[in-house]
Amino acid sequence: MIIQYFTDNDLYKFTVMHAIQKLYPWSFVKYEFMNRGKTAFPVGFAEALRKEVNHLSELKMSKEEKKYISKRCYFFDPVFIDFLEGYQYNPEEVHIEQVGGELKVSIEGFWYRTVLWEVPLMAIISELYFRMTGAIPHGVEERAKKKALSLKEIGADHSEFGTRRRFSFDVHDKVVASLIENSGLSFKGTSNVFLAMKYNTTPIGTIPHEWFMYHGALFGYRAATVKALEAWVDVFQGSLGITLTDTYTTDPFLNSFTLKHAKLFDGVRWDSGDPFLFTDKIIRFYKENRIDPISKTIVYSDSLNLELVAEIKRYVKGRIHDAYGIGTYFTNDVGANPLNIVIKLTEVKVNPKSEYLHAVKLSDSPGKHTGNEEEINLSKLTLNLK
Fold first, then answer.
1. Number of domains present in the structure of the chain
2. Is residue 16 in some structural domain?
3. Are residues 353 and 319 in the same domain?
4. Which of 22, 143, 347, 383 lies 20 to 30 Å from 28 when distance is taken between CA atoms?
5. How confident is the model at residue 162, as a pLDDT?
């Protein structure tokens, strides 16, 4: 069984689950697996994946996990924590098909339930692929140590974000242990709740793209940012204050990022496009709104490596607080080619009886747009994007 712990999942899935339960308990959604790298999966992969998915129904949150979440995730109320203790995955929500080397996976059900599938399902697909193709990891701890020492030397605050596309749980575990041992105070935590508990470090995560995608689908693309941020604040009251900007690209986001939200949120996350242009744009935005950029944070998180982190670090020095969320480069840099895969929200409806609406994601990198093509074009037209 690849996923052996209920909290072997990223914090952001639990935070958005909490918000969904509070505000949209009747919402019904679909997610789809997207194989961006066109990887051919081996014969029998779908059957092996189905077995792993079925196993997840046996997972339950342990007393130790509940105690940790109650202590460290201060933004969750006791009702939600009790709900997590009783939560059980339903494998019937996951649909799996394989034709030749092509793998098709979709998820459908109440949003407050299905939201937890994305990260463990991707981790299973990744680890299972490397198992079935006979890949062997090399230099796990040595590479992690070298990266940790380098990041420490340049003073780059960093967190580990690599659950979804990791080589394996074992590699992930060893990487986090090495980062904690070698990074010193530069290491700020991990997105993986179980490993945060195991190593007594900080669980990291805030707002995902799907939160904005849902609001864009239901309320329109011009209203998506304000609606999504207001809803988040209603639930978390100022906690979890790093927001993504690129769900419908950064310029429309900043046009809707009110002074209230700019002051309330601790900062923003760069997840696509040019990091240097993004940095200039964000600093200019804060200055124009009479906010000292040094009081805010940019979390850089798109396809980072040591060279890019060092380059960004030099560029932003003394201008704004910077931090780095590093994923696959930490957890799947072991000699294999990581899978280029995602699972994205594709359709939403306010309740099971209503009609589905398309949910799409744009990006500051055009090649990363996802969703129905006609709906993507509609969102771009609505937002006056080329």
1. 2
2. yes
3. no
4. 383
5. 97
